[in-house]
Amino acid sequence: ETTPLITSPEHSVEGFVREFLRELNFTQGTVLERATTNDAYLALARTVRHYLMSRWIETTVDHYRAQPKAVAYLSAEYLLGRQLDNALLAADLEEIAAEGLASLGLDLAELRDAEVEPGLGNGGLGRLAACFVDSLATMSVPAIGYGIRYEYGIFRQRFAGGRQVEEPDTWLAGGAPWEFAHPEHAVTVGFGGHTEKYTGDDGVERSRWVPGWQVLGVPYNYMVPGYRNGRVNTLRLWSARATHAFDLQIFNEGDYVDAVRSRTFAENISKVLYPEDSTPQGKELRLQQQYFFVACSIRDFVDQLLPAGFDLRRLPERIVFQLNDTHPVVAIPELMRVLVDDEGFGWDEAWDVTRRCFAYTCHTLLPEALEVWSVELMGRLLPRHLEIIYRINEEFLAQVRERSGGDELLVRRMSIIAEHPQRAVRMAFLATVAATRVNGVAELHSQLLRDKVLADFAQLWPEKFTNVTNGVTPRRFVRLANPGLSGLITEAIGDGWVTDLDRLRELEPLADDAEFRRRFREVKAANKGRLVDVLRRRDGIEVDPGTMLDVMVKRLHEYKRQLLKLLHVVTLYDRITAGEVSVDDVPARTVVFGAKAAPGYVMAKEIIALINHVGAVVNAHPDVSTVLRVAFPANYDVTVAETLIPAADLSEQISLAGKEASGTGNMKFALNGALTIGTDDGANVEIRRLVGDDNFFLFGLTEPEASAIAEAGYRPSSYYEENPGLRRALDLVASGAFSDGDRGAFEPVVANLLAEDRFMVLADYQAYLDAQARVEAAYADPDAWSRSAVLNVARSGFFSSDRSMRDYLDRVWHARPLPG
Ligand code: 26W
Q1: Per the entry, which co-factors are needed (predicted)?
Q2: Which terminus of the chain has fewer CB atoms gathered within 10 Å of its CB, N or C?
Q3: In the predicted model, is pLDDT for residue 248 greater than 60?
Q4: Is residue 241 classed as helix, strand or coil in its secondary structure?
Q5: What is the pLDDT of residues 475-532, one digit of tens each?
Q6: Residues enclosing ligand 1, CB less than 6 A?
Q7: Measured between alpha carbons, how far is 212 from 90 in angstroms, rounded to an integer?
Q8: Which fold has domain 68-81+117-467?
Q9: pLDDT at 255 over 60
Q10: d(CA 149, CA 239)
Q11: Domain 544-793 is classified in which CATH homologous superfamily?
């Protein structure tokens, strides 16, 4: 039994103001007259927290009492975005807070802007994790998110001479009002050392791990409030600290300064998020991060969330660990080690339990993004885990041999251990062998996993493979990001859509209602106005809100083909400056880019520089700039997305078919009433099927077509030779027109397109331009365009992450909500 809870502060303006002033005085130690904006923001955040606290404790206690089957989401990344607005929304405090603060002469909007978003992720995979924990809380599912509390999140991007410069993200510097540190629940994790054989009391030969060094994992808890359902789940992020033993030896040797310095070695583990996306860095520190957080999480679940003396043979009844890509896959040998070495299980018994506790989601199709760890590194850092992986592999391959009648080629292909170019552990294979379920993140992606990436495994275990199409949270990406549209929707169909997004269907008839469309356009215009203000204040960029907003925001990667969008811009520039097209005949557009490049990805950084240089020339041209402008605000993040997406008219989703696993930005745009120009790739396929062909601009090669061309030998230069428009665009870039006459500046980019063009930009160029011509024609009819836009909103309810969670619950987790 727990002691009765102190009740939440009173849900009224007076109650709120009292609590806020108390926080300002007693926690911030200041008074209203002297408070800085940051003081007021911190006091506000803590005030809101108080309203959620009793729900949080009750949720935790209920879960402990009921011991239901819980979901543990294991993810190296959570790209959370700002917390304040989401907490205000969940606690139903938006109006009370605005009014209460105003009565004190404070502006909620200004305090909101003081929050630095926790950017603990790179892109799609990290943002997906944040949407999923939001949906799980809102659906009252007993769930916990586990991850890493990076001291520095994704780098801050600035441009110098158009080139990307990275700066550290000091998100904790202003204070961290949303986190709760629990050093008393720290966990010890070992690394390195060696294993030794011994004979157990039962006479059985066993192996045990003698780690060479240890670190402490300190949990930091974050609230994950459900939307007005009385539930608050937990996100638990681990921070690395040095243990005492860590430096004791050096202390004893008498070097105090060295001893203190050595502590930073341990603390480096959670220091910084790796900014590589889709290109694994085989860095030792990264494997340390991965093992660190999953070892802490498993220990935590077993020791803290299960009752004392729980029979671990029944673990699969209580938990499913969802592996967010391969980053947490070392959890599999870790659970085996805990069961076999620490708990005395037999191997088979332990394997039976382990297999039933894990499910694996793959988020990529690029072969180079499939993580491998060299046997040398794995053996040095985690020697016992390597032994366990070898044994898993041995037993698995015996099974393959038996089933295939000794097909040694197949055995080699499926081995968890790759032999070339070096002996290495293939983490995706390990995950696939162990997991109860393996899923892709959109229908096409799951199909390609079955047919290509993991085809041998799908043959062996067809029932293991499933699809769960990604989703996004409607709370953050519609209700909060687009209050205008939310108001319009709620007025029309009530507010049930916020937690039941399929109800957006009820808007369909309104697509044919001229008055509704007019109001929809009004909302879009207001959102553009909001964006104009933000870009002016934040970046000093002037955007004309009267132009079509054509937006491409996502990580910079060759497969996503920002270059294809840029070639469209260059072609428009070329046609206008050559006098082939009159500015009177093209609708005015603003092309907005937002993208960070991995710091070591040279080509991606060249592309960023090229976009900025083309943009500078286009924007400075007296004629061209009347109908075409390029805006590339630096440091695209969740906060920028929240003002950019609701303002967009056109959503660019133009990856080469078969390369983008799903995309989730595509869903956010459609839900906010932008039309998509896109390839038949990832979740675009499902978006187009749902919104209808007439309301989607499809272009480009299909996946089978692209594969066939690659197979036959792709020759990009033939497209250059045969397409005069394309030739002129590339020649223009190569001529130095965008680099003050310097012909060498972007030579590597052009040369790569002509010689290799791995992602078939040139092959899709003409189809893309034709599709953009269809966009222009459609945009010329505002009524028809807004009809399509409304239909995009009405038919995109499927892309709620609540639906993704229902699919995981049914197809993968076999768990249920536990409403309060
Ligand atoms: C370090 C190596 C590394 C890092 C990140 C390899 C792979 C990744 C991720 C899997 C990349 C990623 O974020 N994938 C994206 O996941 C989204 C959510 O499922 C999808 O919508 C995107 O299509 C996919 O690119």
Answers
A1: pyridoxal 5'-phosphate
A2: N
A3: yes
A4: strand
A5: 999 999 999 999 999 999 999 999 999 999 999 999 999 999 999 999 999 999 999 9
A6: 123-125, 128, 276-278, 280, 325, 363-364, 369, 371, 441, 470, 660-664, 682
A7: 46
A8: Rossmann fold (3.40.50)
A9: yes
A10: 5
A11: Glycogen Phosphorylase B; (3.40.50.2000)
